[in-house]
Amino acid sequence: MKHMNSEVKEERTSNKKRIDLFLVPIVLIAAFLNLFKIWTDEYANAYYTAAVKSMLQSLHNFFYASFDPGGYVTIDKPPVVFWIQTISAKIFGFHGWSVILPQALAGIGSVLLLYVLVKRTFGVWAGRFAALAMALTPIVPAVSRTNNIDSMLVFTLLVATWMLFRAVRTAKFGWVLAAFAMIGVAFNMKMLQAYMVLPAFYVFYVVATKINWKKKIAFLTTATALMLAVSVSWAVVVDSTSADKRPYMGSSQTNSVLELAFGYNGINRLTGNTSVTGSSHKQSAQTEQQTASSETKQNSNSSADSSQSSNQRKSSSSQKMQAPGGGNQNGMFNTGNPGPFRLFQKGLSDQISWLLPFVIFSIVGLFAGVKFKGPYTTKQKESLFWLAWLLPVAVFFSIAGFFHQYYLIMLAPPMAAFAGAGAVALWSMYKQHNGWKLWLLPGGILTTAALQVYIMSPYVSSIGVAPIAGVGALGVILALVLAVRKQRKNSLTNYLGAAAMVVLLAMPAYWAMTPIIYGGNSMLPSAGPDSSSGMGGPPSTATNSKQSGFNGMQPPGSSSGNSSSNNQMQPPSGSSNGGQMPGGSSNNGQMQPPSGSSNSGEMQMPGGSSNNSQMPNSSSSKSSSSKRKSGGMNAEVNKKLLNYLTKNNTGEKYLFATTDSTSAAPYIIKTGEPVMAMGGFSGSDPILTVSKLKAMIKKGEVKYFYLSGMGKGGQSDVITWIKENSKEIPSSKWQSTSSSAQQGPSGNGTLYEITLK
Fold it and tell me: Which of 13, 99, 704, 714 is most deeply buried (CB count within 10 A of its CB)?
């Protein structure tokens, strides 16, 4: 107890010291990477931005996180992050940057928290290097520059970690309760993903606290009960509310938050078994990929030769799916093949793994000589915490059946902590001639440089040979010089060590800047020279990266630039399989379902399918626009359609109805009017029945329907009934005069009107 009290006094004394001047530039770097030019992303992830627009309009929409102003369906995540985004939009006005700002600040806050957590035990230089490694981990700023949830989730979990560490230092049970309650709050951000850190919390508390086992079990049981209560609090309220008094729970199949948490957003992410009765969650996954892929198509259309694209499409039929940049790719979203080396594969390694070999060497050094029965030092206990965070999460991403690249931000805190703590520990072992341990530092530098060369090699056409050769050569030279030097305690050795760290952080720093340099994808964020495509693979040699970068994006169907015939989908940048999209493709640009999918025939695009299609979107966006409006969806609206619907509205609640969120989101964002996404995000939610739709029409709630294709899952009966009982509106009344301006990813769009007495 005396030791703990002395630690508390030491903490109070250290807090009175002046600001660490070395931390200032690290924070400024993080601020630049997370904040610079976020104001150019006008809509961010349009699916979530539309929800914020809706949540601003009423407390009912705010509480339930309704996607549309009419309160028809919610988004597919819990509300806490979107409550924060809505408050930000209320304070600063509704803009793309105002909904991104909370995540950007959370990214900066995570850097500061990691500094505080590591510095106290491992020293100030360990804290500095850990903070810098966190700031320069490419996926961290890539996610933080969007309105996706993960940056805020990681920040919340780091706050919980700080509370847990304080609970152990002060021996106060209240901090234990606070730490686990904070995980419950994180659950209400992204459900079961928040529980990934629980092994670390349990292991650390058991090992680090000096109380008897009865108290440990009692304290942990109570804290866990509180965590579970906080976790399900919102879900219980929603699920116990009558379905007719709240929106439908988006992306669930039973209109239940708990089913969404433990199914679609839970176990199904691990198993990849996304098929459900009457519908398919895999369609939702395909929709996310296809809407993001539409940006790749836009970029390719602006520079690729159309005849070459045609030949690529012809050769793509019946071939196996391949990863962008070559190689077979079984996972969707370029997440690689499950296995022990998945984090070293293309698409994942360049997002998170730049320092992974150094981290492994650091773990060896930090745990060298540790005995299983203890006693353990404070450094060893906290190293065990970070290891218990790192390993389960790494195992999950190595075997999971379905996730996105940006989920990898969950690995950033433990890897950055080990990079910082390990750098100091390995340096100390090296300078002290500490037996075999002195080889850990040069070994870590050499293997890390080798991995970075491997990561960069597919991008030689866009970044050139010089940086790849430079990192490789400098890494080898510095590692060898450090290995053979006898005089290890002079200033020259210090400079060599510092130079090695600079070399190892140089390319991660560049990768972290790519969302600023080339543009980012707000729906499926990733880092790299192809970051605007959201496909996570090496860029195409046929594409000018500057044209397809931050200010060069065009909405599907834009008439500016050269377009391929029939506006057909282009392959991901760098694909070597003749133009196949992830998931497989046939000729004529029609998407095929991934191998093993229960769907036969062509894969539908959001809201429907097939090429050369039309949707209610205009091409007013120019390639030279200072605002990026893609957001993973075509965020432009057809003004002629909007004018027609507004003029002919006779008091209906909904401006119009459409199959899914892709077509609805831009109109919600631009107008704030209720637009019904009949099948939720992907169009596959079993929300609407024919009888329910008839009742809505009779009550005068909806009259116009914009349809493309035959719908999805349980929507087909509703779509068929609409077509059989409606009047088709002539396209001349609502379509733009330019046919190319109406082409988009939502299929052969038709506007229908239904009035029932």
Answer: 99
